[in-house]
Amino acid sequence: HTGEKPFGCPDCGKSFCTSSSLVIHRRSHTGEKPFPCSSCDKSFVSRSALVKHLRTHLPKEPPDGAR
C-alpha cells in the first residue's frame, strides 16, 4: 500500500485510493442513494451500507447459552 490517492473529488478536493470510493463519496454531494431497503423507506449510498442496515430488520439473536 503506497498511500497514493489519485482519485480526487472535483467538488471538494478530497482524494481516494479507488475510483469506486470516489463514486460513493460523490453521492454525498448529489444526494443520490441508489440502494433502497425493501423493508422500509430508507435508501443508501452504497450496497455495503444497505447490507449493514438490513441487519436491523432481522430478529435479535439470544446471547450465547440462552434458549
Automatic annotation (TrEMBL):
Read off the SMART domains from this record. ZnF_C2H2 (SM00355)
* Ranges where the C2H2-type domain occurs: 7-34, 35-62
**Which keywords, in A-to-Z order, does the entry hold?**
Metal-binding, Nucleus, Repeat, Transcription, Transcription regulation, Zinc, Zinc-finger
Q: Which GO terms describe its molecular function?
A: DNA-binding transcription factor activity, RNA polymerase II-specific; RNA polymerase II cis-regulatory region sequence-specific DNA binding; zinc ion binding
Q: Which SUPFAM superfamilies match?
A: beta-beta-alpha zinc fingers
Q: Which InterPro entries match?
A: Znf_C2H2_sf, Znf_C2H2_type
* PROSITE patterns named in the record: ZINC_FINGER_C2H2_1 (PS00028), ZINC_FINGER_C2H2_2 (PS50157)
Domain of life (superkingdom) = Eukaryota
* Cited Pfam families: zf-C2H2
Protein name per Swiss-Prot or TrEMBL = ZN554 protein
Q: Which gene encodes it?
A: Znf554
